[in-house]
Fold this protein.
Amino acid sequence: MKPTIRRIQQKVGVTADGIIGPRTLSAISRALRIPETPPAPAWPTQSEVRRGTSRFGRPGNEELLTSVTPPYPLLYEGSPVRSIRVHSAIALHVQQALREVLAHYGAEEIHRLGLDLYGGCYNYRPTSGGGALSMHAWGIALDFSPDANAYSYQSPRASLSRPECEAWWQIWESHGAVSLGRERNYDWMHLQFARLS
Ligand SMILES: [Zn+2]
């Protein structure tokens, strides 16, 4: 398969690394003149979410959650995770982003980079900084590789801040998710489907 992928990549003018990532997919779409994946929806801002009137509804409403089966094995505190519970409005994006991560990195690299270490999604609690409710209270935030990306770790100490994780973030960002690490250089484990402002 790989030589074929490389030939296609050469043809569409991207690096011929044999990996079908977001850049290759978008170059193929352009070459074939088919519409690219629609732009990510403009998710509400955090303050809109906290008002409780956004599409995500009120916090702590478990009826709005749904289960997503991860396309590659995830571990939560060392135990395999069969499904993760997220807000139904982001479920397809979470599933698709994880599929893209698998296509880009492959299982071995996912494991090496700790992208299979799941830190949780829905949790009715305030932010780690205290005070306001966390986006986790709506099931619209996910944490990954929590031990190597503790709240106060900055780049380059936080493992998810490293260059190998660039594609990880590009994939999530293409679905409109926001990384606190990329935006504010703390809490690198965290991504959320709400804009900061
Ligand atoms: Zn978080």
Residues 91-113 form the longest helix (23 residues). Residues 43-192 form a domain with the Muramoyl-pentapeptide Carboxypeptidase; domain 2 fold (CATH 3.30.1380).
